[in-house]
Amino acid sequence: MPAPATQPLPLEGLRILAVEQMQAMPFGTQLLARMGADVVKVESPKEGESGRTGLPNIVDVDGSTPGATFLRNNLSKRSIGIDLKHPRGAELVRQLVPKFDVVVENFKPGTMERLGLGYETLAKLHPRLVYVSASGFGSLRPTPYGRWPAYACVAEAMGGFYSFRPEPGRRPNIGVGGAIGDIGTGLFAMIGLLAALRGRDQTGRGQKVDVAMLDAIISIMDMVAFNPSIGVQDNSIAAWPGLLDSFEAKDGLFVLQVGRVHQFERLAETVGHPEWIRDPRFATREQWNAQLEPVLRPAIEAWARDKTKLEASRLLADAGVVAGPSYEGDDLLADPHVRDHEMIVEIPAATPTGVVRVHGNPIKFSASPEGPATKWPLIGEHTAEVLTADLGLDASAIADLRREGVIR
């Protein structure tokens, strides 16, 4: 249902001061920004946050070269350039904190404390503050890995991501799912943030929310620890009782999962082999897998040879068989679901296509409008705006801070 034009975004009025970098926290705060939160990034005046320095990159309107990680995770935010290592810079942030509901950060544990911006310090200035921290191994409970630098691949490896579904004779593909560790951590951090805000409504006091990337991956890859507890030791695809694989159509791959007898019967009828239903070679789910290469794959791919991957998937799905096309970038742009759900957002930029394409907001509301996705900010683009509005600094004071290199 179309939302009334006057309906506010769900998080309008929520203010988040984000001392964030790379992907985990920026992904999460971008999600909240799209729902109306005012997210103000605190960045280094010289090079900005570290995600800006990644590759590949583009040339922005001011001649800077923001990297891909930054471009994907910072729509609809504002940026203030403040040198946190400068005493006056850290003091500016401490003065800003009471104007915000939430502070988020995803630096190595101890970094914010050394800057005088840790939770204990800021909570004294703002007892209602919700402080959200994300790191490789967390900062609230003991860990032997707290000093390790951690990108998503480390947490994914330690959380069992690469041990699941092993393929004989080959090592696992590292990073095959993109930054699952970052995105999962960001999502859990935002759930914790919203829960702490609800708790503040009840108690009048804020608290610290802490999410370890390793903990997030253990939660996402729950079967790695769960399966052995019920006697399952083999996590390979071959050990799974049923069919779970990809198949060739005329324009690419589609995936198929059949785990129940009635699904197999519908598969057999749809691909033109109803005799499989009474064939003793397919009497059990374990036998379906054993017959995949000699019988099932050749027959299924012969049936799909004159069909697109979407057509094959639609015929199977209409028959009650779980199937779907394996999409690439161009497929996503052409898909009517993606279009109608506004899941690809185009931001004009100096690229070969003339745009940067970023994922849309997967959360839909019946009565709230879809927030417009505005371009990522330049480094310090909103420094004067925020310092004037929140701290009452005049042009002379801002010019002094700029001359000293405290702000950009």
Task: Describe what you observe in this structure.
It contains 17 helices and eleven strands. It has 408 residues and is an alpha/beta fold. It has two domains: 15-222 and 361-403, Rossmann fold, CATH 3.40.50; 240-326, formyl-coa transferase, domain 3. The protein is elongated and about 85 Å long.
Brief rundown of the structure:
This protein has 408 residues and is an alpha/beta fold.
Compile the SSE list and pairings.
Blueprint: E1 15-19, H1 24-34, E2 38-43, H2 68-72, E3 78-81, H3 87-96, E4 102-105, H4 111-114, H5 119-125, E5 130-135, H6 152-158, H7 180-203, E6 208-212, H8 213-220, H9 222-229, E7 243-249, E8 252-258, H10 261-270, H11 285-290, H12 292-304, H13 309-318, E9 322-325, H14 329-334, H15 336-340, E10 344-348, E11 355-359, H16 383-391, H17 395-403
Parallel strand pairs: 1-2, 1-4, 2-3, 4-5, 5-6
Antiparallel strand pairs: 7-8, 8-9, 10-11
Helix pairs in contact: 1-7, 6-8, 7-8
The CATH architecture of the largest domain is 3-Layer(aba) Sandwich
Order of helices and strands: EHEHEHEHHEHHEHHEEHHHHEHHEEHH
Count of helical regions: 17
How is the main sheet built? 6 strands, parallel
What is the CATH H-level superfamily of the largest domain? Crotonobetainyl-coa:carnitine coa-transferase, domain 1
CATH topology of the largest domain: Rossmann fold
Instruction: Briefly note the structural class of the backbone.
Output: alpha/beta
Rg over CA atoms? 25 Å
Number of folding domains?
2
Characteristic terms for this protein:
alpha/beta, 2 domains, formyl-coa transferase, domain 3, 408 residues, 3-stranded antiparallel beta sheet, 11 strands, elongated
